[in-house]
Design brief:
Four copies of one chain form a homotetramer.
Chain A: E1 4-9, H1 13-25, E2 29-35, H2 39-48, E3 53-55, H3 58-62, E4 69-72, H4 79-88, E5 92-96, H5 103-116, E6 120-123, H6 130-140, E7 147-155, H7 162-166, H8 172-177, E8 182-188, E9 194-200, E10 208-215, E11 218-222, E12 230-234, E13 237-240, H9 246-249, H10 251-266, H11 275-294
Parallel strand pairs in A: 1-2, 1-4, 2-3, 4-5, 5-6, 7-9
Antiparallel strand pairs in A: 7-10, 8-9, 10-11, 12-13
Helix pairs in contact in A: 1-10, 4-5, 5-11
Chain lengths: ~300, ~300, ~300, ~300
Amino acid sequence: MAKLGVGVLGVGTMGKQHAQNIRRLIPEARLVAIADADLKRAQQVASELEIEHAYGSVEALVERRDIQAVVVVTPAKFHSAAMRVCTQAGKDIFCEKPFTLTVEEADELLDLTAKAGVRVQVGHVRRYDPPNVKAKQRIEAGEIGDPVIFKSLARDPAPPPVSYMASGVNGMFFALFNDIDTALLNMKFSRGTLGAVENYMQSGYGYDVRTEIVGSKGTIITGYLQQTAEVVLTATGAKTDIVDHFLVRFAEGYLNEMRDFVQTVLADREPKVDAFDGRQAVAVAAAAERSYRDGRAVAVANRARSSRAA
Amino acid sequence: MAKLGVGVLGVGTMGKQHAQNIRRLIPEARLVAIADADLKRAQQVASELEIEHAYGSVEALVERRDIQAVVVVTPAKFHSAAMRVCTQAGKDIFCEKPFTLTVEEADELLDLTAKAGVRVQVGHVRRYDPPNVKAKQRIEAGEIGDPVIFKSLARDPAPPPVSYMASGVNGMFFALFNDIDTALLNMKFSRGTLGAVENYMQSGYGYDVRTEIVGSKGTIITGYLQQTAEVVLTATGAKTDIVDHFLVRFAEGYLNEMRDFVQTVLADREPKVDAFDGRQAVAVAAAAERSYRDGRAVAVANRARSSRAA
Amino acid sequence: MAKLGVGVLGVGTMGKQHAQNIRRLIPEARLVAIADADLKRAQQVASELEIEHAYGSVEALVERRDIQAVVVVTPAKFHSAAMRVCTQAGKDIFCEKPFTLTVEEADELLDLTAKAGVRVQVGHVRRYDPPNVKAKQRIEAGEIGDPVIFKSLARDPAPPPVSYMASGVNGMFFALFNDIDTALLNMKFSRGTLGAVENYMQSGYGYDVRTEIVGSKGTIITGYLQQTAEVVLTATGAKTDIVDHFLVRFAEGYLNEMRDFVQTVLADREPKVDAFDGRQAVAVAAAAERSYRDGRAVAVANRARSSRAA
Amino acid sequence: MAKLGVGVLGVGTMGKQHAQNIRRLIPEARLVAIADADLKRAQQVASELEIEHAYGSVEALVERRDIQAVVVVTPAKFHSAAMRVCTQAGKDIFCEKPFTLTVEEADELLDLTAKAGVRVQVGHVRRYDPPNVKAKQRIEAGEIGDPVIFKSLARDPAPPPVSYMASGVNGMFFALFNDIDTALLNMKFSRGTLGAVENYMQSGYGYDVRTEIVGSKGTIITGYLQQTAEVVLTATGAKTDIVDHFLVRFAEGYLNEMRDFVQTVLADREPKVDAFDGRQAVAVAAAAERSYRDGRAVAVANRARSSRAA
């Protein structure tokens, strides 16, 4: 079977993980080359992963004929430009979240990639996280009835450096609010379900991501705190450790996600999480920001779902 | 030591529990009489608890000289009138939440009882719930740093009958909204802490009350799901039961609360949870209702803390 | 309804708990008097529980006509003598475990009480502990198939004083072995089920009692570690407290057990846990001791189940 | 850096997992060839893992000069013969447990490999399982004081086919007892620590491996039941799934173990778990069998620890 030739653009913590997964654990893909604005870093990661080619720009990367798909893991503010270059070169795209920094950018890219017939998958790792996948199956099977409330919390152990937040890499809240590391958001979905989301960037205790879907007949809770299956009992009580990093918490999800992208491209299918989904997430974040600034409920700017040109 | 003579007004589920605790488990008190608008019910409970006196009205109850304190557990819409009668008779008062149905009523009662020198404790069982008590101690000791987010959820297994909700017994949301059994509320406290509260009246699976206090150095989670310490492992997975009733979940809290009321009156102290606290809870609920109707953030109507007249 | 008149003999930690339960929480019984070799202690507990009569001997206690049943909670080495006095006086008996110190004593008492038609219930609190009760129901309903292995562990936070152990109060191991505070015991039941029991007297961390019944189709685990429903998350991990005392762990069991005894006597029924069951436990402990001394498997000395004389 | 050339002998479930780990996840090693008595299976696995060479015998495998180490994962009854061939060829050896079927075989191999200067590591995955590794560190750091009791249970969801058990692959109990799938074993270590081990081959609910080390100052519990971090709450209670396979439970342990073997050979170090350790496990199993047959305590046949010849 022909393998999918893949290039990875941006090999910080997240990009390197994607590159490793492609290199070691997805036999259907061949990691052809790595690119990073920091060429030395690209070369270093290429050497660690025992592959030959490293570049300092997306332009150099997309010149390679043996690359059919590019995984974009740059800082968020460069996503848009990088995807334009990939689109022009006819490469299929996997782009880490957030898809773009503004709804306008997102809409332009949606149109552009659809017109060019380029496939775009956006990274939403929870769609591939086993407990969340199972929860979705149960909901679809009716185990908890109709969803009534969706609750989510995401806590990082410590805030990233200012430089990182300035890069807009981790979503709207940091890109737009700058000074905000704690956010509560209530939502009402068009079908009536309520939503409540919490983000906190300095939990102090670990990396904690939990979801709760409350339904008319039951509730599903996903997520976990304990990393190592060890409980210590002493005179001071019972204690366990706590997951400390998102790459630990979502290790399986990231692998499943990238494997699905590779298989999707090879099978010439539509992505499960496409540019439209990425655009909607950006629209929600933008609405949340406006709601915060105006102190009132704000409607999310919608558009009709578009699909990749034939 | 002289015992505190207590009368209980209203012996539905909650009132009967208070009466039992006073009768059996608080030796410093003597349950003198029970009153209920339904005289037969009053007599029935009196008989079960092996006490002599049962009445059909608060007026009859407060005539007894050997009663120094009245526990008001009527439907919420009668709280205000009942407390007026008790105040007039010079009886100290324990009133179940909600204190009143409106802020105006609450303010009037605050003034009235203060002027009469009548002691008022309002029922807020979580203040006496062991995990919440411990959490408070930890927070005061600085274990989790400064509180950043307060989260709370309360889920009942099934909604109460319409008659019950019409009585306004269970707080603002039901008294005012009538048709609402699901509510999400975000708050911002004056010290900057954020709050997120969920109420859901038909979980389908059990009685579930959990709290999470997120601080700058750590987080405390209180509450539990499992009622019986038994895990069953079979081919379909691991399963446990779930707490099914608020009297199970808060059994210890209700006892601690009533014991504290009795000891507070006997020792001639100020209540830990007084009429002012009860009034503030009413004000928050009223603001939540307005916010819901207007689709915007609403400030809580505050007043200065008043204390019982000397 | 006539109440059962009860006397409690021996009011150390355990006896006082039984006395309190009878006095406060079992309306079908009337706690008439307390006796203790230490008369002052008997008087002190009587005063705390607001009852009139306190005695310094079982002989004085059983003279009372208004006492129909005696709860024996003396040190274990006095159980046998106390039960003889009660039997002679025609009082029904609740005796804390261990029933006696030797199989011979147990057999004599079995015969004696059967002949006298005196009802004997032996304290085995786990039979009344909610998770264990539920487990039994499930097993009988076939939920885990045929029992294959029974596992049990019991850990005390710290060993009792030497004086206590010398009194033989807590069972065979301490009475007979003296110097032993850690024991592992494997058993084979006549129906083929295997058993493994652990006892450890100085866990250092708390009071920990767990049971695991492994069946041909599933397993049931009972017991719990956490006392307060509070989890604290900080940079050092997640921590909870641990149950610290057997009266906390088995509070509900002790109440259920005594209530069942009272109801059993009032209804003139056979006890659920009778002298024969108590005798069998003594026989197992004696066999365990012999096995330990001889380094080989030892058969338990059985006798046919006898029932109370008509 | 030169990579370690490795051949894998035996690619059933376990052998294939080792081969995959070497091929994909241990960059310091190169998987050169696979051998299996079933040549077709060897070829199939070689093809899946994208390597060139597949053989039908250990003799063919060890002829390759580019193989420095052989991973032996045959049925247990062939371990001994396979290791003799590897030793003769001067290859370092990783052998899955059990090391051999008898103490005599083990002793011969110990002498033989020591004389030949061949390095032998025996597979004991729990030494590399993160919770067990952490537990060992804590014990060595004195966190729980002196170990008093070691408890272990291992439950398989369903017994393997008879052919598998006849092959002696999974240790003494099955090889020797044949008809036994449930075993309880008590031990006393020379330092005084007690041990209690349970093995059960048909739990019906999942793959469950737990350990408890009870110390003079605290206790450590390792192991877990839940595979997917999802809790479902419905009217029938709370439920989770359960780990179903040893390759899931010990995925990380198997990888850590093989990586350590590769690094040990490359660094010319002594293995952490060597032939002597493997021999001791065989001796314990043999003693357990004798104890079972004779109904009495049996001493383990010891020998002095030997090390690899210089």
